[in-house]
Amino acid sequence: MQQPVVRVGEWLVTPSINQISRNGRQLTLEPRLIDLLVFFAQHSGEVLSRDELIDNVWKRSIVTNHVVTQSISELRKSLKDNDEDSPVYIATVPKRGYKLMVPVIWYSEEEGEEIMLSSPPPIPEAVPATDSPSHSLNIQNTATPPEQS
């Protein structure tokens, strides 16, 4: 069974042919980089540790931290995500790991239709709390209480 096509930000990722494309431009990546990008897409918005990446992408092969760092760097370069200070695609979370920062949409390769949106919904901006009643929440318990025996 072929892996579905996935849109990662502006890039369309076709794992079955190790290819990413954007604006009519196609790039063929090493299979390991495609596997890494797909794993990030499967866990969009989550911080992934080096150990998680090694366990799931490299399948616990003997891999050094340098190999993971180098692979992330190559993937960023392929995605044109070279600004370390404000990455668009893959952010480094100090002392924790890496995080995919863009929306992800999965497609059925055969039909070309959207099958699942896996990105977490955007987090609303924080609104300062006030003591004004007009800003308070009106919460009601609509659950049916359990029957007592």
From TrEMBL:
Molecular function terms, GO-annotated: DNA binding
Pfam family, one: Trans_reg_C
Domain of life of the organism encoding this protein: Bacteria
Residues annotated as domain OmpR/PhoB-type: 3-102
DNA-binding region extent: 3-102
Start and end residues of each stretch annotated as Disordered: 116-149
SUPFAM superfamilies named among the record's database cross-references: C-terminal effector domain of the bipartite response regulators (SSF46894)
InterPro entries assigned to the protein according to its UniProt record, in alphabetical order: OmpR/PhoB-type_DNA-bd (IPR001867), Sig_transdc_resp-reg_C-effctor (IPR016032), WH-like_DNA-bd_sf (IPR036388)
UniProt biased composition (Polar residues): 131-149
Any Gene Ontology biological process: regulation of DNA-templated transcription
Keywords, alphabetical: DNA-binding
Protein name: Transcriptional regulator
